[in-house]
UniProtKB/TrEMBL annotation, chains A, B, C, D, E, F:
SUPFAM superfamilies: NAD(P)-binding Rossmann-fold domains. CDD domains: SDR_e (cd08946). The keyword Cytoplasm does not apply. This is Uronate dehydrogenase. Keywords: NAD, Oxidoreductase. Residues 10-179 form the NAD-dependent epimerase/dehydratase domain. Belongs to the NAD(P)-dependent epimerase/dehydratase family. One of its GO terms (molecular function) is oxidoreductase activity. PANTHER family: 4-EPIMERASE, PUTATIVE (AFU_ORTHOLOGUE AFUA_7G00360)-RELATED (PTHR43103:SF5), NUCLEOSIDE-DIPHOSPHATE-SUGAR EPIMERASE (PTHR43103). The keyword Iron does not apply. The gene is udh.
């Protein structure tokens, strides 16, 4: 049983892949789930409220945030690409979100950060939340910015944030790298629930992964969150190996944790 | 099956809450269990021997220790309060106990230390046994003293001690903080058993907690003890949340690991 | 004697306080010094070339960077203030600068970062370059962004950067906090020279401070830069104490390394 | 199901205790298993190929390595003894092996290192792969040499190696020390399989142990290997305690992780 | 020139060796120097005030503390010996001192701790302020208690303390060990002055040593204090070597940092 | 004045470059200096004794060691080359040396190790003595072996060793890399003297460098040795820059600390 810890919970980026996966699941966490995105979210279902907003629009973001007790922020650009849109949605947009949270007294945020904040570490290294950022592109860089910005809002204004460095959250792992980075939708929901309900969250960085045998990430600094993964990529291992070939160890996409992102771009804006 | 590793085991503080919980359980660890406290312990049962003693009385403590192979020391003041009684029982008393152990050749002690040795760390931090002491009161300070004193008796005289920083050992967790700090009576017994039977104990600090999802403590420096928790506070989680309200994050009792102790006192002696 | 290691060196922010202090000094480091700012820099002197540019204007920045071998980047907003101008000059502007460096093959940058990247550490703590960012405002946050962005351009494109976390670079320390943070103009020049001439710079973070007795920063991870301070705030100590009163330890501006910045804002854009 | 990741796998030291335990098991990992030792290995069974070689004979080692895709190297002296044979088999022999791997393009090696590389740490300490070597004799020293040599072949030539510091791999633990160090044959096979199949191995040191309650070793730097132990010494614990007496804590063989090895020798060559 | 930072400064233990050395020197730090000890201090000189007190007497200590702005606490037992007097003066006495400071609003204390807090580290080790206590006797243990107690008064009540782990403060080093541990009287005064005047002290541990070539202690966590040693034991080195013989490396007094203290006792009370 | 701490000191490798530099200097450290090498050393001068020996010849080494109180071991192969001679002189030879020391009760050795033990760290990294070995060739590997072997002889037999990782000891630095690695002959002598005379040496690793501005090495774990450099490469800096061109950052010899060694070989034996 999940605890309905919040009266009104805001989910941004609700139209995206993870947003869709969480739309039903998060209803267990609140009385009302406010959904937001830049694009259409269809009709509001039971327990739902819909408020579209462009993250770069401060007034729209302010309205979106008003009246909620907590925020699960998946909104913004979620893949590597030109800097312009990332600047608008992930940098200016995040500033708008935290300013709104500050003004309206929202005290807890779950921020979808990314493993691409540390994508330039090697796949043979294990890192924890204190490893300095080594972003693998503009997207990862914007997420590093978000982690630092939320740290400021905690140190200065006491707004608690969990920066969830999501690995690869898909129905199942698609390749050998994802055997390490996979996060099932149910584990994603468990992790967000833990972030929303743990008594004291502080400002925390937590890697979003299932209980995979191979991993590069150490969540020992996030024990106070109480996340316990129940899924694992291991059941997909033989099938993934059977349909993929041995990796080329001279390929940066294989050497580094960020995978293909470390080779993306540069993009013209 | 527990191993009867000792011929005669001394349990101090046998009249207290944990003492009562261990009185039956520890009989599995020894041929004879010598029970001690300052107050009456009733009649000696099977396998039992009773020797009352005030810890501040060196002669009484010497007699209490004579003839045993190992000690489980729960005795002394176990809550925050005026310094006078703590000085007598927990500081002078502990000195008396180790002097007696030294004189009588007792080589292994399980010392009930406390999470209040490090009560001024935050509930959003994870600490291990090497984190400098940050006691949250006179009680925690006396336990820090005990840890240092037992370190000396190990370095100088080879007496091995496990300092067990007990979290909250009750039949079940009473509030949200205890979901992190809870130690079931059975896990307490498992932990003490591990300390008594591991081949080499050295001088070790180990946090006494069950296998709780939320935790602030890292026992990785105590792997040689071989403690494996089998209970967890998680089964009580929904009930605790249902009967308690959301914590006030501006309250020091919520911010710090020591809970209410960080606000106790000052006490007049 | 300083080594003229570069043919053409670009100095941005040349109209600001530090820019003015470096305008003459940096001529020792290069054949030609290209000066840039958003505002007038007067006539070009000997060894000088002037190219005004707004950092948010990608084309202007591209032209400014073309033809130089190395960059000393002081440009942008240098104090706490509204986010809008910081976003333009320090975030978009820095992206423009590194994109131009990438396109034109500039391989070494000295980036004026700031102690405000870590302004929310306490004045009783010593931190090194690996301490996670704790920015004390939008300005510090933008400098944290710059450090991460330059890390990316090193990991991906091999552009070396020294992120110089400048303390307080003024003719002399103005208050007790600056006794710890002071960086003389000559030491600033020594530090930049070391960054420009050390054989291998990599991506490095170095705290910009003179040889002050009181300090909060540990430059041990920047030994390969070879910076040796020759000035010290200590000669100003008695005078500063004489004209200032004892600090109020309950004031965040005294508790935290960032000083007054930790209390600035929020600003309306 | 184990993944047949290799076409032809070389197993050296196939006549030894662990070699015999792995001879059948490793057939699941490859199409053909090439077996080697200095002494007779009987007739080749199905999937098998046999090539005897003395490790100190460079030409024989070269022939032994030619044509394989990966190597599981158990060969050489495996107990403490005179330095001469260790020098020949474990030092010169290992050099010969890696030179052959370099010449023939073999890119992955599983090297049987030993807990005796760190045998002079105490049984009350937990160490990880970064703890400086403290070999407990000539055998442990030769394994430390092998770890450093394989590090060089990785840094210079990109040959990946897992240095598996095998604890005590026997059908069951023989004494109280082995309760900590035991590695079942099946877990040994699981560990080698993980080393052979993880996408990126790099140069890694991993302690070879089952999931024992008491342990002195922390494998957190080898998470990318994906080894999950399924056996445990714990089921043998009561029996081992029943047939052995309490250890003498003044005996170096009890104090140090290397056990009896720390007292062996000196040997005349 | 030393800064007269305090109006009325209390020096306890003023009759002891270090007390005498500081009696004149500390007048430069304050308008009035209040001197205290258990034994006679002679007549009050210029700038002086005398208040005798037994540290175990809470009322006397309260009176002694009333009216001062800061405390330099050298009082108590300063050598290894029976536990009784140490318990009274160094444990109960320190509690009395901090209670008095709390009641009277004294906000800064320089506490004479000792290298004997960590006397059981080896002379071939370098430790810093975070190394866990390893006291070498009852005296060192009482100083460890004092460090923890003052940590509590800082965390709970904001009273700042510098715990100065004094090495060997004598006119000159007496033996080879003291070449490492020597602290000249002038450097002792410089260190206390730094503790009294640094803007933010927090709760700090600092090793009290001159600028000796051989040392075992790392003061990098105390950089915010701004202590700069100007003396060195090195000028005494040849003379000390000439009059002493080579140390016996099997002697615990040579192996451990605490020197002869590690062999003292046990004492009958 | 250097202290004549030893009666008879053995210097091996006396015919080499450093051996020649030390032959006169070390006479200040002892009554008699025994010189050894494989090749002729000319006639014995005052205070000198000469005993030629091939390090691979155990009997000759035994004779060479008999009767001395301490050893400065520079002998063996000192550059990268084929493995055969390195195996004989640096591996077997070192074993012979320590066996002789053990048999004859020699208790202190200064072992000339090398920066090539860690040659595969980057020139933009700072490492200390605990950084895992990353040898850059067979020579560096043999020195890593020597460090581990001497650790064993300390842990098992109490023979103290200083492993001096000599940087570049020449009359003056030859290129830009040597500005970081340079060790003057006088500083080399100061360092060896410190190793020979410090009261407790233990088993220590110390980087042999002068007080150069640019450095990659942190000697903080060797403070108990008391080495203070008095020379610096800085006076040669401008001249070195003037006669050398800017380094190519894509060249491994520039990227890694080992310089050209990281590209040497492979060698046919």
């Amino acid at each position: 049983m999940t605890i309905k810890a919040h009266e009104k919970l805001l989910l941004t980026g609700a139209a995206g892949g993870l947003g869709q996966a969480l739309r039903e699941r998060l209803k267990a966490n609140c009385a009302t789930l406010r959904l937001s995105d830049r694009v259409s979210l269809g009709d509001a279902g039971s327990q739902e409220e819909i408020m579209l907003a462009d993250l770069a629009d401060a007034a729209a973001v302010d309205a979106m945030v008003q009246g909620v007790d907590a925020i699960v922020h998946l909104g913004g650009v979620s893949v590597e690409g030109p800097f312009g849109p990332i600047l608008q949605a992930n940098i200016l947009g995040l500033y708008n979100l935290y300013e709104a949270a500050r003004k309206h007294g929202v005290k807890r945020v779950v921020f979808a950060s990314s493993n691409h904040v540390t994508g330039f570490y090697r796949q043979s290294e294990t890192i924890n939340a204190d490893a300095p950022a080594r972003p693998d592109g503009m997207y990862g860089l914007s997420k590093a910015f978000g982690e630092d910005l939320s740290r400021f809002y905690f140190d200065r204004y006491g707004i608690e944030t969990a920066c969830v460095r999501i690995g690869s959250s898909f129905p199942e792992p698609k390749d050998r790298r994802m055997l390490a980075t996979w996060l099932s939708f149910d584990d994603l929901h468990r992790l967000i629930t833990a972030c929303l309900t743990t008594p004291v969250l502080g400002h925390s960085i937590v890697f979003g992964m299932s209980d995979n045998a191979v991993t590069w990430w150490d969540n020992s600094r996030a024990r106070h969150i109480g996340y316990v993964a129940r899924d694992s990529s291991d059941i997909f291992r033989d099938a993934v190996y059977a349909r993929t070939s041995a990796p080329d160890l001279t390929d940066p996409a294989v050497q580094f944790q960020g995978g293909g992102f470390v080779k993306a771009g540069p993009f013209a804006d």
